[in-house]
């Protein structure tokens, strides 16, 4: 049975978005339990030249719901807005992305096969894709990169999380 584009992309993105929402909640609880300012984790980075936790969470939303909207529109540019500066704002960003993905009709994505998608950064950079390659070779790897980086930042900062927190609600057979 061939795997549809929707099946290859959306369920796993929903799973990891749920996990990232859980990470935001664990980060908030960590700060609350230890009397730390929220900005301690919201602005935490793995390295000085990397973006902070808030940017990673925002980018998970951008490379999921934003990328799918871009594929449907035929063009995608990265969201350069400032990430939310609160745990509530980050949670909202994740939930907005989850709602957008959940609302997608599978046939919408299937009709995209072979359609052009331009990735641009202003006037200075452009890459042309077909929709399935844009989603599977660009957005999906970026999505997982930012989700993993968000997880890694929290681990490096001592938040009590493990692999199951990254995996989220897996799609297992119910017995």
Overall mean pLDDT stands at 96
| Integer-rounded radius of gyration | 17 Å
Percent range for β-strand residues: 5-15%
Low-confidence stretches: none
- Derived from helix and strand composition plus strand pairing, the structural class reads mainly alpha
Q: What percentage of residues falls in helices of 4 or more residues?
A: 55-70%
Largest β-sheet summary = 3 strands, mixed
What strand order characterises the main sheet?
Answer: 1-2-3
Provide a count of the helices: 7
- CATH superfamily, please? dinb family like domain
Task: Kindly report the oligomeric state of this protein.
Answer: single chain
Write down how many β-strands occur, each being a DSSP E stretch of 2 or more residues.
3
Q: What coarse outline follows from CA principal-axis ratios?
A: globular
Order of helices and strands: HHHEHHEEHH
Give the N-terminus to C-terminus distance in angstroms. 24 Å
Provide the number of structural domains.
1
CATH class: Mainly Alpha
By CATH, the architecture is named Up-down Bundle
The CATH topology label is Four Helix Bundle (Hemerythrin (Met), subunit A)
């Amino acid at each position: 049975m061939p795997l549809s584009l929707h099946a290859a992309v959306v369920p796993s993105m929903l799973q990891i978005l749920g996990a990232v929402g859980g990470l935001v909640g664990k980060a908030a609880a960590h700060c609350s339990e230890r009397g730390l300012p929220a900005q301690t984790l919201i602005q935490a980075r793995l390295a000085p030249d990397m973006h902070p936790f808030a940017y990673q969470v925002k980018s998970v939303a951008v490379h999921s719901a934003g990328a799918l909207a871009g594929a449907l529109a035929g063009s995608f540019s990265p969201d350069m807005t400032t990430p939310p500066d609160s745990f509530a704002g980050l949670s909202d960003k994740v939930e907005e992305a989850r709602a957008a993905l959940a609302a997608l009709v599978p046939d919408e994505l299937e009709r995209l096969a072979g359609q052009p998608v331009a990735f641009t950064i202003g006037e200075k950079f452009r890459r042309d894709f077909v929709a399935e390659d844009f989603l599977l070779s660009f957005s999906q790897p970026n999505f997982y990169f930012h989700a993993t980086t968000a997880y890694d930042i929290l681990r490096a900062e001592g938040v009590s999380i493990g692999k199951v927190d990254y995996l989220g609600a897996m799609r297992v057979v119910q017995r």
